[in-house]
Amino acid sequence: MRAAQPLQTIMSAIEFVEIDWAGRPVRIEHQWINARKQDRPLVVFLHEGLGSVAMWKDFPQALCDAADIRGLVYSRPGYGRSTPRAVGERWNADFMHAQAHEVLPALLEALNVKEKPWLLGHSDGGSIALLYASRFPGSVAGLVVVAPHLMVEEYGLASIRAAREAYATTALKEKLARYHDDVDSAFQGWNNIWLDPSFFSWTIEAELASIRCPILAVQGLGDEYGTLEHIHGIARRLPQTQLLELAKCGHSPHRDQPVTLIHAIMEFIDQHPCAAASAA
Questions:
Q1: Other C-beta atoms within 10 Å of 176: how many?
Q2: pLDDT tens digits for 92-150?
Q3: Which among 129, 147, 151, 154 is positioned nearest to 214, based on CA atoms?
Q4: Other CB atoms within 10 A of residue 21 CB
Q5: Domains of the chain
Q6: Contact in structure between 238 and 215 (CB atoms under 8 Å)
Q7: CA–CA separation, 25 vs 32, rounded Å?
Q8: Where are the alpha helices (DSSP H) in the chain?
């Protein structure tokens, strides 16, 4: 494994690009990291169900500097400073499919990304990364999926119900408002669909079969939103999967064990130097 590179801090200012999605123009907040390093791999960061560009904090920069790579971080519609949900709009049970099959391809096209990027997704973002690689198997260099969801478990729903209670009764709303222009759009969009009975049978297990790229699947042993069956299920179906189970770690390894995670991702990318050329 290569030694970590010194901090270079080549992060651009927040930018916006407009895409057409679901019959309306949608503004997408995004940020480039180390953009001038055009000869280095590109990692696209896909945030969690309550995430945004800002909520990643310094992890994307730390990873890109350590691994000497470029990064693209963005907020999905409804999150951060991207266009909020329309009044009365609810996510459907296929909301992650829509993000993977429609929004992400439109964003990459709008930003003129021609290469095969690595996708690094956390939680819902991990599921979106898997769905993108399933639909477009020749367009991905590799996947790093951190606490992804393959199915709905009662174990995770209990934590989502607890989050709803905390949003109504504690300072959680005020904390999240630091990261989202429309905090109700972000929280309710995520929470309402996960707790909708129509979503309880949701699964993407059968869709994994078409994924061809290398995969690093990561989960904390103390993940409050899912059991290890999610990453184990990926490994059973896709033999190119490497597993990383982290002790003293909850649902957010990039916050609980950032150094360990960064080194694991660096090593994983180094193991597959030709992935971008061979993913097809």
A1: 18
A2: 999 999 999 999 999 999 999 999 999 999 999 999 999 999 999 999 999 999 999 99
A3: 129
A4: 17
A5: 15-275 (3.40.50.1820)
A6: yes
A7: 22
A8: 59-67, 95-98, 104-110, 124-135, 154-169, 172-176, 183-194, 229-237, 253-256, 258-271, 275-278
Q: Tokens for 7?
A: 């901090």
- Cβ-based burial of 209 (10 A; exposed 0-12, middle 13-18, buried ≥19): exposed
CA–CA dist 152, 161 (Å, integer):
13
In a 10 Å sphere around its CB, with 0-12 CB exposed, 13-18 middle and 19+ buried, how is residue 59 labelled? Answer: buried
Name the 3-class secondary structure at 16: strand
pTM of the model: 0.94
233: number of Cβ within 10 Å: 20
pLDDT digits (tens, 9 = 90+) for 148-174: 999 999 999 999 999 999 999 999 999
